[in-house]
Amino acid sequence: MIRKATLADNARIHAIRMGVHENVLSDPRLVTPEEVDWYREHAIFLVAEEAGEVVAFTCANHQTGLVWALFVDPAHEGRGHGQALLDAALAGLVAAGHAQAWLTTGSDTRAERFYCHHGWRDMGRGQDGSIIFIKALV
Q1: Which end of the chain has less Cβ packing within 10 Å, N or C?
Q2: Residues 6+ apart with CB under 8 A from 62
Q3: Total of domains in the chain
Q4: Is residue 133 part of a domain?
Q5: Within-domain flag for 104
Q6: What's the sign of the alpha-carbon dihedral 28, 75, 43, 87?
């Protein structure tokens, strides 16, 4: 089940973000509680549940077309949660008027392969070495 994230989901979302094996957040201070609150209150912030437990989440900025986050609990990978969340977030971006979405991710990761496999185009590297991907939505 996919639904809008709530304040009650914050602890589980944080646990998922800190529990991933790739694209690890090297400095948790880089993601502030205020930023998370803004996404939850104003942007597209969705969670996937399995058996009543939040197992994955995504955030997308409806103003800029940025897919800010897409993370799946490692114990629940490979079950389609990431793709379902991404599809829902992209539908939200289309509804907000975007013709293109963009995101960044680490290179040589499963995420990179996932995005390539699902039609995202590699636009090069950011200053931090991450890959910048874009995808046409319409």
Answers
A1: C
A2: 42, 43, 44, 92, 93, 96, 98
A3: 1
A4: no
A5: no
A6: positive
Strands 100-105 and 131-136, sheet pairing: antiparallel
Q: Report the CATH number at residue 24.
A: 3.40.630.30
Question: What are the pLDDT digits (tens) for 115-138?
Answer: 999 999 999 999 989 999 999 998
Cα gap 14→17, rounded to integer Å: 5
Flag whether 118 is in a domain.
no
Number of alpha helices (DSSP H) and beta strands (DSSP E) in the chain: 4, 7
Q: Encode pLDDT of 1-15 as tens digits.
A: 999 999 999 999 999
Concatenated DSSP letters of 96-116: TT-SEEEEEE-SSSHHHHHHH
Question: pTM score, two decimals?
Answer: 0.92
